[in-house]
Amino acid sequence: MVLKWFKKGNKNYPDFWMDYLEHFKKFEKTPIKETRFIAFDTETTGFDRKKDRVLSIGAVAFTGKSIPVNGSLELYLEQDIFNPDTVEIHELMKSSKVNKVSEIEALKTFLAYIKNSVLIAHHANFDRNMMNEMLSRHGLGMLKNKFIDTGILFNKSKHIIYRENLKEHYTLDDLSKALNVPMIDRHTASGDALITAIVFLKILSRLEKRKNLEWGYLLNR
Q1: Tens of pLDDT along 62-76?
Q2: Average pLDDT rounded to a whole number, residues 45-58
Q3: Which residues contact residue 75 at a Cβ distance below 8 angstroms, ignoring those fewer than 6 apart?
């Protein structure tokens, strides 16, 4: 189906996209401690952003150092593309009995949830690219939010947090082990989002004790 705002030359974007953009019209430099962060994760049919599709999105929002999980987001998406090789990882069967929504409905819900919050993900470029590809398929622009990658943040701060020389590439399992974070519901979007949020807060807590933190240090460039 060709959505009406997707037609060539049509600049009448849908209300939900315009509502999302509205959040970025005013720039406010919020202190880190008062910022609304959202840790999120996607489970996908594979790693090719053009060919593969998002199966589920999980996200948790928090301000400060507590994570109210009752305000989390969990979406399962309808999909026509299915890769049996990835079932063992994300455990989402095409015929699984969960409530699923279309891509466009998932985008509406996700954008309304994140607003202009700072987004956190592990290997953030992958999740950002998958979401941007979804947006592109529906004739919309890219995510405008600022991003923090927990892998990158841990890597560049490891010599501040730890004395020992650790490796250069970290999985979410590596960070969970290093920071003593329970791996609850690992390899589900909602579970990985929660783990990522806790990992971020633990890194932040250690950095606050050793470094005068500024946004330029935390954000992906």
Answers
A1: 999 999 988 899 999
A2: 93
A3: 56, 57, 58, 101, 106, 109, 110
The span from the CA of 220 to the CA of 215, in Å, is: 10
Sequence-separated (6 or more) residues with CB below 8 Å from residue 84 = none
Pairing of strands 54-63, 36-44: antiparallel
Sorted by where each begins, the domain ranges of the chain are: 32-218
Q: Could you tell me if 139 and 104 are in contact, meaning their C-beta atoms sit under 8 angstroms apart?
A: no
User: What CATH number does the domain located at 32-218 have?
Assistant: 3.30.420.10
pLDDT band of 1, cuts 50, 70, 90: very low
Which range, of 2-16, 22-36, 96-110, 131-145, averages the lowest pLDDT?
2-16
pTM: 0.87
